[in-house]
Amino acid sequence: MNILILGDVMGQSGRKAIKKYLSKTILENRINFTILNGENSADDGKGITKSIAEEFFFYGVDVITSGNHIWDKHETIEFINSEKRLLRPANLPEGSPGRGFGIFHTKDQKFKVGVINLMGNVFMRKTDDVFKAAVKIKEKIILKKNVDFSVIDFHGEITSEKMAIAHFFDGISTGVVGTHTHVPTADTRVLEKGTAYQTDIGMCGDYNSVIGMNKENSIKRFLKDKNATSHFPANGEGSISGIIIEADNSTGLAKKITRVIKGGVLQ
Fold first, then answer.
1. What is this structure's pTM?
2. Catalytic residue numbers, as ranges
3. Is residue 118 part of a domain?
4. CATH number, domain at 188?
């Protein structure tokens, strides 16, 4: 079983990179299941629309995860209830639209994959306690009982939260990946009990930027230049960034984790 997970898709540049590289990456690596984080994929880098979600599904994505920008496009509040393949963080306040986790079939219907979307509590929008949410979900998504494989997208600012969640799920999840900071980290590995992990898998977008935003304008904002405007995405050639987990069909745990970086200045 090969699972592809891609980091935050950033604006038009990220979407163009997905269009250019995703199908080929799936084919070349015999990918069985694909997850990407789509919360920055709108033209302004904030939120996701129904048409963009459908575009990702057309290119081969099986599940879209998200984070703190999930509600930045008002239409998402309406269509997320009917689109089960689009997840929002599971620890958003009770009563939030949509779902924070789900069980999905591979395209050939051979395997069931549990996908869990969590969001950190530190320096993020108001959420319920992420570790209390993790305890509850741990009892609902059980490897080799009601799913064959399971993946957690932890959308958060700080490395310690991500690492702690990874160790909490070690041995009971196929993989835990971090998203949100848009910079791929160098700690790609399989933990001691068999869970694949990377603190942040980066973004899909233009890396000739400040975490995906126009670099000149970002510098002006840091300098408090009166000519600075609101942040807007860089739209140069984009990279796709993420990981591939090769998982054992009998245990559901990871045998190998490999970084995927294609296109743009990052490659």
1. 0.96
2. 69
3. yes
4. 3.60.21.10
